[in-house]
Specification:
By secondary structure, the chain is mostly helical. 59% of the residues lie in helices and 0% in strands. The protein contains two helices and no strands. It has helices spanning 27-36, 43-79. The radius of gyration is 21 Å and the shape is elongated.
C-alpha cells in the first residue's frame, strides 16, 4: 500500500513531476485506448501524455498557419 506523506511529498515510486488525476472515459474510448496502448504499468500515462503533446503541437501549427494565411490575404487586399 502506498503511504502518503506531507502534501508536498510525492507518492512512493513515482516521479516528482508526475501528477495523479482521476477521470472518467467512455467505454468506446477505453477500447481504442487499449488497442493503441501497450499493456504495462506506466504505458497508458505515457501514451496519453504523448497524445496530448502531439495535439498541442498541431494546434500551435494551425494557429501559426492561420496567421500566415491571414497576413497574406490582408496583403493581397491592400495591393488591389
Amino acid at each position: 500500500m502506498t503511504k502518503v506523506g506531507a502534501p508536498d511529498t510525492p507518492y512512493a515510486h513515482r516521479r516528482a513531476d508526475a501528477v495523479v488525476i482521476n477521470t472518467t472515459i467512455d467505454a468506446e474510448a477505453v477500447e481504442v485506448l487499449r488497442h493503441y496502448c501497450p499493456p504495462g504499468r506506466r504505458a497508458t500515462g505515457r501514451f496519453l501524455a504523448r497524445l496530448l503533446f502531439e495535439f498541442d503541437a498541431r494546434q500551435q501549427e494551425r494557429r501559426r498557419l492561420r496567421k500566415v494565411v491571414q497576413s497574406a490575404l490582408e496583403e493581397s487586399v491592400a495591393v488591389e
